[in-house]
Amino acid sequence: MIVRILPEVEEDLYQAVLWYEDRESGLGLELLGAYDVARLSIEEQADRLPRLETERTNREIRRIFLKRFPYMVVFEVLPHEVVILAVAHFSQKPNYWSRRSI
Fold first, then answer.
1. What are residue 5's phi and psi, to 5 degrees?
2. Considering only CA atoms, which of 100, 86, 101, 10 is closest in space to residue 42?
3. Do 97 and 83 contact (CB within 8 A), yes or no?
4. In whole angstroms, what is the distance from residue 84 CA to residue 87 CA?
5. pLDDT digit string (tens) for 76-90?
6. What's the pLDDT at 90?
7. How far apart are CA 55 and CA 63, in angstroms?
8. What CA–CA distance (Å, rounded) separates 32 from 89?
9. When comparing pLDDT for 97 and 65, which is higher?
10. What is d(CA 21, CA 11) in angstroms, rounded to the nearest whole number?
11. Looking at the predicted structure, is the pLDDT value of residue 94 above 70?
12. What gap in Å lies between CA 40 and CA 58, rounded to an integer?
């Protein structure tokens, strides 16, 4: 399936990588690697990943957790593509990404 990534997602990820890299050299790159694994899973099986329970909407919003980090990739499954909406921290600004337009 085609995966499109919103520009805001790149900023989400960039900020998280900087934060972790500032704490420990190489940790930001590990976060980036965990994101890449999650993105590949989305490409391969988006419609089999769990729906996001906290978002009440008719949209098909799903998520996948990053290994080792308190982040999830939030994405929407559309008929002809999957759109990654956010790389969101579990406890910071819940659902801040919900107004992002696709």
1. -115, 120
2. 86
3. no
4. 8
5. 999 999 999 999 988
6. 83
7. 11
8. 14
9. 65
10. 15
11. no
12. 25
Helix H, strand E, coil C: the string for 44-87 is HHHHHCCECCCCCCCCCEEEEECCCCCEEEEEEECCCCEEEEEE
pTM of the predicted protein model? 0.88
Share of the chain above pLDDT 90, in %: 74
Phi, psi torsion values for 93, nearest 5 degrees: 45, 70
Instruction: Say how far apart CA 81 and CA 84 lie, in whole Å.
Output: 10
Top CATH class, 3-92: alpha beta
Name the token pair of 40: 């590949």
* pLDDT at residue 52 greater than cutoff 70: yes
22 vs 47: CA distance, rounded Å: 35
Domain ranges of the chain: 3-92
Q: What is the pLDDT of residue 32?
A: 97
Q: Which of 62, 66, 67 is nearest to 97 (CA)?
A: 62
